[in-house]
Amino acid sequence: MTSGPMRGMGGWRVDEAATRHRFEQALAEHEQEFETFFLAKLFGLRFEYSPGRCRVDLAVDEFMLNPRRGVHGGVIAFALDTAMGHLCRHEAWAGITLATDIRYLRPLEGDGVCEATFDALGDTLAVVSAQMHDATGGLCAVARSTWMRIRGSESGDVDGTAGVPLAEVKT
Hints:
single chain, 171 residues, alpha+beta, six-stranded antiparallel sheet
C-alpha cells in the first residue's frame, strides 16, 4: 500500500493531495485501451501474462479503503473482473461479463495480486476463474465468471469495435 497503516476504525480521512495526484496521473497517462484504460491507471494495475494466465497486481492506496481501512470489496471485484477480461482478450477474444460469483474469504489489507485462468473456453463463451491474494500469499477472494465474445473480435485484435460508440457494439 502506498500510504499509511490500514488497521483501525473511525476518525480518518483520505489523503486529499495523494488522491488528487493519483487521479491526475491516471488522467495524464491513460488510453482507453486494454491495460491502459483510465480505471486501470487510477487503481495502479500492472499486467503480466503467461500461457493460459493473466496476473494483475493491485497497488492499493487510501482512496480504495472501506471505513474499517480494508480494501473495499468493489475494488477487489474490479481487479478480479479486469484480470479475467484481460485473460480472455489476450488469449482468445474480447468479451463482456455475463455473470460473476465472488467469494470474499478474508480482508485484503495492502496490495493484492490477482491471477485469472480459464475453466472452459469456446468460440463464443468462456468460464474464467480468478483469485486475489495478499502480499503474504494469503487467499482473500475467489471469483468465477462467464464471458461472451464480442462479435468480430479475435486474439490480437483490440476488440473489433475500435472507434465504435458503445451503444452500437453488437454482442
